[in-house]
Design a protein that fits this description.
mainly alpha, DNA polymerase, domain 1
Length: about 325
């Protein structure tokens, strides 16, 4: 067995089950193309389930034990999480992990457990994206360079924020770009979640800001070098970007919901408000399901309601 993908996680299990878990984690990384962070999350979720089983049964979990679990056992696990006041979204994530693991066991001839199919995850409240309005989104981009005394750092953040808002990129997608990925035309290819590729638009102002940053780029402009770098000339850490947005929140009096991801939300919401087609926005964002994109229609409806209540002459009067 190769070196563990999750060495910091303790799995309460016998040796055979531990080896099977390692094989599953490797499959998540190599076959499902999951990121190391996601693989670790799955590992932690499965580890918490095994710990529960150990405490619940007072036995060390084994493969035969897992295959013999009943609906009552899985529901007991959910009840235990509920008593810890765990959010429904976290409980649903844990059940998703377990379903993935048991499906993989069956697919790879380790055995089946049909009981887990009868267990329903708790439904979590559907969150509505919280975008910035157009003025705040643009102020965030225009003011980014005021946080630094070193010019190239300001140009970096300005270009990065423009890319998130102007092209709808996830922060991780933007930070994964190399110098060779800088667009020369009106579109560029982005590799998103699940290693899926999509074409996104690149507005002239975004290209100009990227070029300004590249002209001031302090490192070796090797095509394979990371595009967005930190002071140490290594690929920029997401935490640095999040910290700068927090500083901008204070400087510009932005809401607490102003985050790097809020710029992506703003991209989608402003496109929709301007008459953009949902299917097109789905493609641009790289959503696998249209239902995920449809959340933005709720934002638009909420915005229209506020405008109506503020402006319509009947909104402030008593009904006839």
């Amino acid at each position: 067995m190769s070196e563990s993908l999750t060495p910091s996680i303790h799995y309460v299990s016998d040796k055979r089950l531990r080896e099977i878990i390692e094989a599953w984690l490797i499959a998540l990384k190599s076959e499902r193309r999951m990121s190391p962070k996601t693989v670790s999350s799955y590992g932690y979720d499965l580890a918490s389930f095994l710990t529960f089983l150990n405490e619940h049964t007072e036995k060390v979990p084994t493969l035969p034990m897992l295959l013999g679990l009943t609906v009552k056992d899985f529901r007991a696990f959910l009840s235990a999480q509920n008593r810890k006041q765990m959010q429904h979204s976290s409980m649903a994530r844990k059940m998703s992990c377990l379903r993935n693991f048991f499906r993989w066991l069956a697919k790879n001839d380790y055995g089946k457990n049909a009981a887990i199919r009868a267990v329903h995850s708790p439904k979590s409240a559907r969150s509505i994206p919280k975008p910035l309005d157009e003025t705040d989104a643009l102020k965030t981009i225009q003011t980014a360079n005021e946080l630094y005394d070193t010019p190239w750092l300001g140009l970096r953040d300005t270009a990065l924020f423009a890319l998130l808002y102007g092209s709808g990129l996830r922060l991780g997608e933007a930070l994964a770009m190399n110098i060779k990925d800088i667009p020369t035309g009106d579109t560029m290819m982005i590799t998103g979640k699940g290693n899926k590729q999509r074409v996104v638009p690149v507005l002239p102002f975004v290209k100009d800001l990227l070029q300004n940053y590249l002209d001031a780029y302090p490192g070796d402009k090797n095509p394979e070098a990371p595009l967005f770098i930190g002071k140490g000339k290594k690929r920029l850490n997401p935490g640095v970007v999040q910290r700068q947005i927090r500083r901008l929140r204070i400087l510009l009096n932005l809401p607490e919901t102003a985050t790097p991801h809020a710029l992506r939300h703003s991209f989608a919401t402003h496109l929709l408000s301007a008459g953009g087609d949902l299917r097109t926005i789905q493609e641009l964002l790289g959503h696998s399901s249209l239902s995920t994109t449809q959340r933005y229609t709720e934002v638009d409806s909420e915005k229209l309601g506020k405008i109506y209540n503020a402006a319509h002459p009947r909104a402030k009067r008593k009904p006839l």
